[in-house]
C-alpha cells in the first residue's frame, strides 16, 4: 500500500491519495477488557478489506468505532481525514441482519428512500425527481425493483438484505461498512451482492470493510484481510494471512488452512472458522 509513504513534492507527479480510512495505534476497550490495541490500518479508496475472526473478537465493534458509535481509548481514527461521527454522509452501513417483522409499515422503496434522505434532509431535497431516480437506481443495482412496492415484512431474508445493501449505497458513500451482509442469502444471491459491492468500489472508489465468517464468497475480490482473534490480529493479503502458520499463531493452537478448488478451508483443534464455522454459528444453517 502506498498510504503512509513519504512523497517528495519535487519529483512526485501524482499525489499519494489520502486513505479513505486511517486507523493509527488505536485501542478499543470496554472497561478492563481490551478488544484490540496498537491497531494500525490505512484503507485506500476502492480497497476491499475483509474482517475475519471468531465470535466476540471485535469485528462489529471495529465497524462501530468507524461509525462513531464507539470511541477508541487510545490512538486515532479518521475517515477522509475527519474523526468518525454518527450519521456521516461519507459512510454507508449494512448492519448485521435484523429481520423486519410483518407489522413493519414500510415498502422496500421506502426503506431505500431513507438511505437517500438520510444525508440530505438537513438542507432539504430540492428535486423529487432526483430522489426517485436515486431510489430507482439503488433498487436496480440489487435487482429488487419487482418487489420494491411490497411491505418489507413480507419479503424473504435475502430479499430484505438486498434492500439493505441498496439503502447503504443510495447515499453514495465513500466508505462502505458491511456486517455479514451475505447471511441467509442463497449462493447465487451471495455472489450477486458480492459482485455488486466489488463493482461499486471499482467504479466509485468506495473503500469497503466487510465483516464475514466466510471468506470464500468474497475471496476473489478481497485485497487484504484483517484477522482478529482474542486481542491479536494480522493484516495482509489473503495469501499472507490465510496460512496454517499465521492462523495457528493467532489462535495459539494448531490450525490447518487447506485450499481446495480455489476455496479456503480453515480447520482447527478448538477453533473452526470459515465455511465450516458458519454452519455452527448461524442457527438457520444445517450442520452436515
Ligand atoms: N457496548 C459494549 N459494552 C461492553 N462490551 C461490549 C460492547 N459492545 C461489544 N462488547 C463486547 O465486545 C466483544 C466483541 O463484540 P463484537 O460484536 O465486536 O464481536 P464480533 O467479532 O463482531 O462477534 P460476532 O462474530 O459474534 O458478531 C464481545 O465480547 C461483546 O460482548
UniProtKB/TrEMBL annotation:
SMART domains: AAA (SM00382). One of its GO terms (molecular function) is ATP hydrolysis activity. It comes from the Bacteria. Keywords: ATP-binding, Nucleotide-binding, Transport. Residues 21-255 form the ABC transporter domain. SUPFAM superfamilies: P-loop containing nucleoside triphosphate hydrolases. Transmembrane segments: none annotated. It holds the Pfam family ABC_tran. Belongs to the ABC transporter superfamily. This is Zinc/manganese transport system ATP-binding protein.
